[in-house]
Amino acid sequence: MNNNSSHGVEERRIPIREKVRVTNERLDADFSRIGTEIHRFPRGLRSIGDRYIVPSFVALGPYHHGLPHLQEAEEVKHAAAHDFCAQSGHSVEEVHGKILSIVADARRCYVDVMHFGDAEFAAMMFLDGCFLLEYMHLGSSDTLEALFGGGVFSVLEERALLMNSMVLSTGPCMLRDIFLLENQLPWLVLETLMEFGNVGVFEFVSEETAFYDISDRGLFVDETYRPPQPHIVGLLRYYHIHSMIYELTSCPVASSAIELAEMGIHLIASNEKTGFADTSIQKRRIFGELSLKPLFLNDITACWFVNMEAFEACASTRYPNDGFVISSYLSLLAMLMDKEEDVHELRAKHLLKSFLSNREMVDFFKGLARHLHLGHRYFVLHSKIHDYKRERPVRIAIHRFVYNNFKAIVAFLSIASVLVGIFKTLMSLKQHQP
Predict the structure, then answer these.
(1) Nearest to residue 62, comparing CAs of 134, 133, 132, 122?
(2) pTM above 0.85, yes or no
(3) Which uninterrupted H or E stretch holds 397?
(4) Count of helices and strands (H, E) across the chain
(5) Who contacts 325 (Cβ-Cβ below 8 Å, separation ≥6)?
(6) Of 76, 325, 365, 394, which has the fewest beta carbons less than 10 angstroms from its beta carbon?
């Protein structure tokens, strides 16, 4: 009986061992594609809200394909594909055939897309890719400047439908939709289509990045460099953080913008033409300086940052030199904004511009902070603030007293100067008396 029992246990061990092995191999294979995969929005961040996840005008790729409220754009995709092929001088069949030849590789960039057949998937990649490239071409600064300058109406007359449907009538929603993490096309698809037409994808993304940059010197983007990216959200993130220097971590301590001002740490805009990785704290002889990249926040850029952070959550693989640069920057801003007065301080220092109210800014960043990964650079800055507090307690106490009582001190000095003046006058009169 014992033999039969042990034999039964052995039979159960074999399938379990095989299942563990197969599952481990599958997970290893999935992880090896982390840099090229079109990720789903991380489950831990989804409570941020659908407006940062689900497109409002156009579906690109399979994740939101077929949603009822996105059907209007499907017809425009066909017009865009027709125009893209016509402008390239190649037939629709030729361009579509090229996409069909890479459909297996493109499919591997997504998860849970087995319900799409190869023909349906290739047609989707073809139409969506042509649509995206046409939008980038028609929405580029060169095209818009020529259009509004009146110099190319004859050239664009045949493309008036696309210009209206894809650029002029869509408003900011297209700039949100094309930078949603779940609304991406594999770089392989765009690269394949660009063999038929020279579309400045790198220039378009760099222009949009620079357009919303509010630093005095502007954002320097080397458009000649072509970094390998899985999709355009990855490219957008690269242009925002292309200069990164890592340091060691330590313990965190929270401080708002007003608290830092009380301590004598001045908030200043980064002086260099670098991205959101250029955040540092320096100790001067009397004061300290916390420099960070200025931010313009509206509905578009808020959506960009949420999705770049989501991409970091999906693709980062290293620590302590992790890839949570955007997350660290957003976490720092959330730390600085404890009250509406803190937002006013950041606006006064030209570090923050927005049409949102101070209260709305606090609510946005505090709501976002609950979902953010505290990245390496966040801990670096916290550590330096902690060191500043520990090393300069007397200076901080004096500066805090002066900062919080500045008006009273000025009033007192003014009254004192008046009294001194009166006293000197009386003494002078007394001396001149016979």
Answers:
(1) 122
(2) no
(3) helix 393-404
(4) 20, 5
(5) 237, 241, 244, 276, 277, 312, 375, 377
(6) 394
| pLDDT for 122 | 95
Per residue in 419-432, pLDDT (tens digit) is 777 767 666 666 66
Residue 31 phi/psi, 5° resolution? -70, -30
HSE-CB of 390 using CA atoms within 13 angstroms: 9
pLDDT at 99: 96
Give exposure, 140-157, as e/b (b: 16+ Cβ within 10 Å). Answer: beebeeebeeeeeeeeee
Give one DSSP letter per residue of 339-373, joined into a string.
Answer: SHHHHHHHHHTTSEEESS-HHHHHHHHHHHHTT--
Question: What pLDDT digit, counting tens, does each position of 232-256 carry?
Answer: 998 888 877 764 433 333 334 457 8
The predicted pLDDT at position 251 comes to: 39
Using CA atoms, how far apart are residues 157 and 209, in angstroms rounded to an integer?
A: 29
CA distance 106 to 113: 11
Structure tokens at 34: 């982390």
Question: Hey, what long-range contacts does 49-54 have (CB within 8 A, 24 or more apart)?
Answer: 51/303, 52/180, 52/302, 52/303, 52/306, 52/307, 53/180, 53/181, 53/182, 54/180, 54/182
Return d(Cα 212, Cα 224) in angstroms, integer: 21
Strand, helix or coil at 91? Answer: coil
Residue 289 host element (H or E): strand 288-292
Q: How many CA atoms lie within 13 A of 364 on its CB side?
A: 20
SS3 of residue 293 by DSSP:
coil
* Weakly modelled stretches of the chain, pLDDT under 50: 1, 9, 31-32, 148, 151-155, 216-218, 243-253, 319-320
Half-sphere CA count of 246, side-chain side, radius 13 A: 12
DSSP-derived pairing of the beta strands 265-269 and 288-292: parallel
Look up residue 279 and give its amino acid.
T
Contact 250, 274 (CB under 8 A): no
Element (H, E) at 265: strand 265-269
Answer yes or no: are the C-beta atoms of 322 and 316 closer than 8 Å.
Answer: yes
8 Å CB contact between 38 and 109 = yes
CA-CA distance, 31 to 315, in Å (whole number)? Answer: 9
